[in-house]
Amino acid sequence: MKISKAIIFSAGLGTRFKPWTDTHPKALALINGKTLLQRNIEYLQQFGISDVVVNVHHFADQIISTIEKNKGWGSQVSISDETSEVLETGGGLLKARTFFEGKDPFVSLNVDVLTNFDLLKLMQFHQEHQPLVSFAVSNRNTSRYVLLNEQHRMCGWKNQTTGEERIVIPDSPLIARAYSCVVIYQPEIFSAITQQGKFSIMETYLQLAADHSIMALEHSADKWVDVGRPESVAIAEALFND
Q: What is 5-239's CATH number, 3.30.365.10, 2.30.110.10, 3.40.50.1820, 3.90.550.10?
């Protein structure tokens, strides 16, 4: 299976990361001297993925100039411009559709997530099971969980804080796992998406899961951190000190 392309979602406002994001995009926050964006681009390079699109909105000019100054850190980096409206993960993916034309699967990452997860394992899982979407999950505490059956198929979603639960495939038992924001898609995802404008990719999963195979691979033993708040920088720097 050939995967050479990826999207790094970098357009968010970073409201949880204030005051840094009052004057900078979160993608350029530094972890031991490297930006989150650089670390994710270099992460993808480890697995032979060097053709990357980055969506931009908040302080887009800073991200673009940093990419140009650093010559993409050795990757071919394209820009998906969302300066007129931030589209969230689903809308951002759909807007970048032309970048992924063809028959090969591709990857998405969130710029504020760092991990040492072996992406080759997800590639092998995806090739073996042939789902529309494969994503990584872990057994960690979070406020929102994807619900999986024993065959690793996504059957629903639950908000632990509000108690809201959405079951699209009734099954038992259902296993709650945290979404790790590392995903492989088949390009057919674009013809399956019915939403338009601004929407979360999780909404797409829930809409499609009953009729399309959406599957998860657990990687609970790996390093993983959501650099969503300023206080998580110290955690990230302890885990990723290269």
A: 3.90.550.10
